[in-house]
Design brief:
By secondary structure, the chain is an alpha+beta fold. The chain folds into three domains: about 5-115, Butyryl-Coa Dehydrogenase, subunit A, domain 1, CATH 1.10.540.10; about 120-230, Butyryl-CoA Dehydrogenase, subunit A, domain 2; about 235-385, Butyryl-CoA Dehydrogenase, subunit A, domain 3 (Up-down Bundle), CATH 1.20.140. It is built from twelve helices and ten strands. The chain has helices spanning about 5-25, 25-35, 45-50, 70-80, 90-100, 105-115, 235-270, 280-310, 315-340, 340-345, 350-365, 370-380; strands spanning about 120-125, 140, 145-155, 165-170, 190-195, 200-205, 215-225, 225-230, 270, 275.
Length: about 375
């Protein structure tokens, strides 16, 4: 089967690329990175994103959105990675996906329309301090009244988000023991809650991070009132994590492709011993290997997004393959970028570090390589009788 982007999806990628080149190039990225006290959320860029409809890519048409799928969203994510673009686009799209899938009609009407035009910033808080991605990493508890207690860490753009989708463990209903119940949802005592940033009992503290193209925060909740997404359960959390992994993987392959292209361009012009550095066999072969690895990761991400859109039975495996390949490709490509830019590449002032540090952050997001490789082993090796 031949699998590739449609003409419309390729046109979307070109449109995103052109707008970023014209209105938010690496000089604008540097201004955000260097402004460590700033919120990392450029207002002009956010308005442009909203006007282009990129926030509404997965919002249903009845709520004013484009009604497209994850395959289309990953096109945008890849270009944002290539441009190391700051801002809460991915977090907002992911929160919107949770409301679309699991929210009530009233919640969807209140959130999705404003979200799609950029009037609402949103994010997700899915794990506690030091916790992994999954039910075991949640450090927020919900009581029977929907009040939240606990903490979440590494929450992207929580300080500017109007609403936050929070994963919380739930009490078992009466008559159900801790080991056999399904909680208020059907997934074993896990739910997703819609929390407004300004509610009582919500404390947000900025966290330091290696990647200056984003902003992270710690969320501390003390009896904070929140509205449960009625369709949420452990399966809903798993679906949200899969979608987050695909968006992160798409961003990573965008980072990797841009890092590789910039490295090839630099080493084509850089001359040592009277020859372009890129003509040296060892370097040329390594760059060729990186090109193959990045290409394979790009196609893995495309298929994973397609598998989720189509609810294919191999979606779990496809996501694990995509994220692990994207992690490897981006880690290798950005490390080579620093090395093959020579002495200038090691200076903090050079653009190489935007790509390297963004890759470092995203490699750990929504499951690191070890977690996804273990998932691949469970879904393949462990199923062989």
């Amino acid at each position: 089967m031949y699998f590739a982007l449609t003409d419309e999806q390729r046109a979307l990628a070109e449109t995103v690329r052109a707008l970023l080149a014209d209105r938010f190039d690496l000089r604008a990225v540097r201004a955000v990175v260097d402004d460590e006290r700033g919120d990392g959320h450029p207002a002009d860029l956010w308005r442009a994103i909203g006007e282009q409809g990129w926030l509404s890519v997965c919002v249903p048409q009845e709520h004013g959105g484009l009604g497209l799928g994850l395959l289309d969203a990953q096109v945008i994510a890849r270009e944002f990675g290539a441009g190391v673009v700051p801002g809460p686009w991915a977090a907002t799209v992911l929160a919107g996906a949770a409301v679309r899938r699991d929210g009530s009609p009233e919640q969807a009407a209140a959130v999705l329309g404003p979200l799609g035009v950029g009037e609402l910033v949103s994010t997700v808080a899915l794990r506690g301090p030091g916790g992994g991605f999954g039910p075991g990493g949640i450090a927020v508890r919900a009581d029977a009244a929907g009040r939240l207690d606990g903490a979440a860490s590494g929450v992207e753009y929580a300080h500017v988000a109007d609403v936050i989708v929070v994963a919380a463990t739930e009490p078992n209903p009466p008559g159900v023991d801790a080991g056999g119940g399904s909680g208020r949802g059907s997934g074993g005592g896990v739910g997703l809650y819609l929390l407004e940033r300004g509610e009582a009992g919500v404390r947000i503290e900025r966290q330091a991070g290696i990647d200056g193209t984003t902003r992270l925060a710690a969320l501390t909740l003390t009896g904070a009132p929140a509205a449960r997404l009625p369709g949420s359960d452990a399966a809903a959390l798993a679906d949200l994590l899969r979608r987050g992994a695909v968006l992160a993987a798409a961003d990573l392959v965008g980072v990797a492709r841009a890092a590789l292209a910039r490295t090839v361009a630099y080493d084509t012009e850089r001359v040592q011993f009277g020859r372009p550095v890129g003509s040296f066999q060892a370097l040329a072969h390594h760059l060729a290997d990186l090109h193959v690895a990045v290409t394979m990761a790009e196609h893995a991400v495309l298929y994973a997004a397609h598998a989720l859109d189509e609810n294919r039975p191999d979606a779990d495996l496809a996501v694990a393959v995509a994220k692990s390949k994207a992690n490897q490709a981006a880690g290798d490509a950005t490390a080579a970028m620093v090395q093959y830019h020579g002495g200038i590449g090691y200076t903090w002032e050079h653009d190489t570090h935007f790509f390297y540090k963004r890759a470092k952050r995203l490699i750990a997001a929504f499951g690191d390589s070890r977690q996804h490789l273990e998932q691949i082993a469970r879904l393949t090796v462990d199923t062989v009788s």
